Amino acid sequence: MTIMFNKPRPSPASPSERTARLSLTGVCAGYPGRPVLREINAEIPKLATTVLVGPNGSGKSTLLGVLAGVIQPTAGDLHRGGDRPPAFVPQRGAVGDTLPLTVRQAVEMGRWGERGTWRRLTRRDHATVDAALDRLEIRDLASRQLGELSGGQRQRVLIAQGLAQEADLLLLDEPTTGLDPEARERIGILLRALVADGVTVVQATHDLEVTRTADACLLLRDGRIAGRGHPDQVLTTSALARFWQQL
What we know:
This protein is an alpha/beta fold. It contains nine helices and nine strands.
């Protein structure tokens, strides 16, 4: 599915219309000598925002990696709906701020999967990059070096790079960590707008304010699903108590 940045926004889908965008059955995954995920059974609804929440080491980033296809399950089945690969937005700390890249060059990297690393971008590629820059309101930063940007600006660049892939599934790892309240709110508004435009959003987060505004929540603990459903149902007083004890 292609993201159309200027099309009218459809009405949000009702819960009954939110069929699964991804489904996992008995999924196990991890790293050599270190299993992380154990028997994950879950569904990610389409046209919605799903948050992965849990203490450090619970498996949130590993699960994102499995959904993105960069970590292969050691057991179980993963089914992805849609006809395009997902776009994965890593934590800001995973992208060095000393890389000699301008904002535009960083966003253009989102076209490499379609065009290839060494092939010249087409007119359509440049239009797609321009649309992503405009959507994130960072076209005025296009010639700036990544290392010159604030944390919130760099996060918007990474999301713009994801949008440039024209994916209908956006996976984000801690997109608001370390940002000031204004930047967090700006990212939240953007992600809700993307869902309205037909994008499924999945984000790992420690931010309980972000979690409360999501459509669905998966609570992880020790590599297993400890709760699933609407955030108000999952984040009970007892669940939150255990969550804070393990942070």
